[in-house]
């Protein structure tokens, strides 16, 4: 799969529902749902204990995730990085939400995700 040959729309059609699920699962603190589209490498990093700690911390400080606005889709031969402006319920300002999408074993998967 060469992501450089895909249109931005095609990448977003794949990435958006994955990111919607990931963010909702983060709000719900649902580890199984959160990592369902992760690579094995990403799953090894985001353990249930780690996700619980991260979610409780950000929710107490920032609230829950609200709307996202696309900033960029960066294409590489073997992956695409999708970057959004992310808003939170308890604090003002703009955060960055990003995922790196890869294609493994016939599926599009998240190999990296972060909000900062």
Instruction: Please state the overall shape, judged from the principal axes of the Cα atoms.
Output: globular
Q: How many β-strands, per DSSP?
A: 4
On the 0-100 scale, what is the average pLDDT? Answer: 96
| N-end to C-end Cα span | 29 Å
Detailed description of the structure:
A hairpin with a 2-residue loop joins strand 3 and strand 4. The protein is built from four helices and four strands; from the N terminus they run ααααββββ. Helix content is 40%, strand content 34%. A four-stranded antiparallel sheet has the order 1-2-3-4. The radius of gyration is 14 Å and the shape is globular. The protein is an alpha+beta fold and 116 residues long. This is Nuclear transport factor 2 family protein. It comes from Pseudoalteromonas fuliginea.
In short:
By secondary structure, the chain is α+β, with helices and mostly antiparallel strands. It is 40% helix and 34% strand.
List key phrases describing it:
116 residues, alpha+beta, 4 helices, four-stranded antiparallel sheet, globular
Helix and strand topology:
Blueprint: H1 8-28, H2 31-34, H3 40-45, H4 48-62, E1 65-75, E2 80-88, E3 95-104, E4 107-115
Antiparallel strand pairs: 1-2, 2-3, 3-4
């Amino acid at each position: 799969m060469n992501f450089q040959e895909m249109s931005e729309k095609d990448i977003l059609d794949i990435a958006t529902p994955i990111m919607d699920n990931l963010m909702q699962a983060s709000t719900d603190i649902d580890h199984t749902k959160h990592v369902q589209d992760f690579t094995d490498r990403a799953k090894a990093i985001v353990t249930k204990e780690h996700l619980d700690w991260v979610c409780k911390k950000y929710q107490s400080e920032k609230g829950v995730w609200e709307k996202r606005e696309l900033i960029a889709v960066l294409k590489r031969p073997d992956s695409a990085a999708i970057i959004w402006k992310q808003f939170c319920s308890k604090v003002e300002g703009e955060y960055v939400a990003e995922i790196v999408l890869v294609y493994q074993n016939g599926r599009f998967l998240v190999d990296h995700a972060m909000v900062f």
